[in-house]
Amino acid sequence: MEFPVSMVIVRRVKPLPYWIVPLLALLIGVAVAIIILYGMSGGKTTPADVLYAIRDGFLQPHLLAMSFAFLSIVGVGLVVSFKGALFNIGGEGQIYFGAMLAVWAAMFAPFSASLINGGPLGVAALKTLMIVLSALAGAFWAFIASLPRAYLQLDEVPVTLMMNYIAYYIVDILVRGPWHERKYGYLRTETLPEKLWLKTISGTTFSIEVYILLIIVFVAAYFFLKYTTPGLYLRVLGNNPNLLRSSGINIKLIIMIALTISGLIIGLVGAGYIAGRTHNLSYPVEEKTANYGYTGILVAWLSMLELIAVPIAAYIIAALYNAGINMQIAGAGGAATVFVFIGSILVTYTALITISEYKIKIIVKRRGG
Amino acid sequence: MSKTALWAIIILVIIIVGVAAFYGGMMYAGGGAQPTAPAKPAKWTPPSTIKAAWIYVGPVGDFGWSYMHDVGRKVVASLFKDWLTTTYVESVSEDALPQTIDNLISQGYNVIFTTSFEFMDKTIEKGKEYPNVMFFHCSGYKRWDNVGTYFADLYQIYYLNGLIAGALTKTGHIGYVAAYTIPEVVRHINAFAIGAKEMGEMLGKDIKVYVLEIGSWFNPDAARSAAETLWRDYDVDVLAYTEDSTAILELGEEKTTGFFNGTYDHPLYVFSHYSPGWIYGKHAVVSGQIVHWEVIYEDILAKIKAGIYTPYNLKNVDYWYLLNTGAVEFGAWIFDNGTVMHINPEIIPKLKNITVTDKLTGEKVSAYDLIMRRYQIMKEAPLLTPLQLTAETHKYENIPTITYDGHKAQIAPAFDPFTGPLSGYKKEDPNKKVTIESGKRLGHDDLWGMDWFVDWVQYLGKGG
């Protein structure tokens, strides 16, 4: 028996301009969130409550400054690999592997104590070392994941994802074991020496050091993608891998370079997160994590893989999280409101991206026709 | 010169400039942002309206830790509604705490309660940043001029629960599902084990307490499967836990009713944790621990309103409230008229039929009477309460009596479970033995840093 109705999906010849989809996703997503929150609260949370919370969420850049910067860095790192259709889901692992080496350099390395007590120059050297090691660790972690992709054609999504858990558990072992604080026996490291903290302007989360890193990363990624040969090959790899293969270019090398650079950038956030946010590692890290590695994926998608749009997407996501906190303070909903926001936007986005690239036609067949 | 080389040079220059700027920025930031000591005002006037905010680590619907803090919040919000407005933020991670605090303060909140141990360091940091806001951190040990600490401790309740467990167990195998084995939980496990052993030994049972750690404060699935493992593989028939859901109570009810109708060969009696959980297992929930955070919140907020607590004098404010204060209670349910069900009425006859010797008096009494006697002893200690409010006076808390002119005054309760002789082993290194000599009573600091298990506790590691 045949169904009288069938659906045909056709790729659009001219896709819609790239900025339309994220913008529409935001507007429709917020509208959907308003309806859900109104229903969930039995009419107590009015659309006005939600809109005020969102407005306040966006208008508090002094509170968003640091999460915005971290999300932007992760977003840039992910765009570098996503451009080549290499889906690095391993940001969390790269961040934590970096954080681990940063903590090691700051507190457990043979040189830690002498550098901290070595005056401003020693402290500056140690801070720089933390950042460099963190980036290298992220690069190393992504490089490992790139090997099975390059040589065995194993899908990088599960590999990078699993590498997250390996990184979490390695850090867990250290924090439970040799690194945990001895005074009270809680399963966390001692607090990072205050001299190594990223300085923020009082009352804000703005740190000049993080922003310098962000600018360096942004400019370097821009030049890498736009003006270097591997950057060019990477973009071709995303669109037409066969072209690369037929012109005899070493695809394996491109894959490894792309994932490694992606990890190098994301790894920076590890040191930033430790020195700027948590000041310690606390067991179990898989529950304590701020999930920048995963939220960054959302940022990268919302940016439509346009580098210039990454900070915009990062600001939107950071502001929506902030709006969720505002809504709770106003008594207009629990912790789930944040997920309602993010979830509504993501679902709308996924739906819209399909519509923007494909036409969906429903064909009703006439009987006996 | 090739184009690639040119770009390589440009990138290199950018990096070098960036690094230089980085150092420049660091010097600037390091030199500029020195925290200055707050100038003490000559006279502190308490705000006419107090805006208090609670920050919870879990969801308020967890029916455990965060839920009971929120009950405390609601009680004081209604009581002091003339001058107090409250709000809360739930499921806040340590990482999101600073931003949440900034957000609250920017909306005018002037008293902030942070209710998770892991919020400790960041509460202190924020306290230094906002010297005119009062902070109270639950369960920590670091304080500042404007950051006080508070905690309601359950170890005496766990001991009383342990007495019941020792009386009820047939296999002698008792279980404990721990969220983490931090000092607080280790103290509770030991108190529970000490009670179980005291009762079990009098009845000729060989008591062993098996501990599984699940690595989460709120994880119903892990808690349930850890409890199931202990019940199935270790013949555990009585179990206590630290986890913020009701999953274990429901499992206990399933196994215990299954035992009553012959499906299983042993039951699983359980003790509800933090909130009254009897309705989740009317046959299996024997007793439990209940907390009344409102006892502490009422005291703190009343003293802020009266101008006693100010942002300049909280450095020694450290509540450590036990059974005598009413901040914790021994029981599984609170009836509508306010009376507490200390022990499930289905269990009471069993306990009344068991005869034991009260080691304090040498009398022969029923197990039920022994438990209620110990409860009364620990419940009534009027001279203890004032000592439990400040960091300065904790050191007197383990003094049972003082004498003056040949008379005695009772300070701490006449009985405390953590009294020697006790022997155990270090959690980190089981080969290292710990011995508490006979008659020595552990004090506040010993209990707060407890990192050893009594000998009959067997730590099975992480599972669930």
Describe what is shown at a glance:
The complex is a heterodimer of chains A (369) and B (464). Chain A is mainly alpha-helical and 369 residues long. Chain A is built from 15 helices and 2 strands.
Keywords:
heterodimer, A: 369 residues, mainly alpha, 2 strands, globular, B: 464 residues, alpha/beta, Rossmann fold, seven-stranded mixed β-sheet, six-stranded parallel β-sheet, 12 helices, 21% strand
Provide the low-confidence segments of chain B as ranges: 26-36
Instruction: Give the C-level CATH assignment of the largest domain in chain B.
Output: Alpha Beta
Beta-strand percentage of chain B? 15-25%
Largest sheet, spatial ordering of strands of chain B: 12-10-9-8-6-7-22
Order of helices and strands of chain A: EHHHHHHHHHHHHHHHE
What distance lies between the first and last C-alpha atoms of chain A, to the nearest angstrom? 16 Å
Radius of gyration of chain A: 23 Å
For the record, the CATH architecture of the largest domain in chain B stands as 3-Layer(aba) Sandwich
CATH topology of the largest domain in chain B: Rossmann fold
Number of helices of chain B: 12
Multimeric state: heterodimer
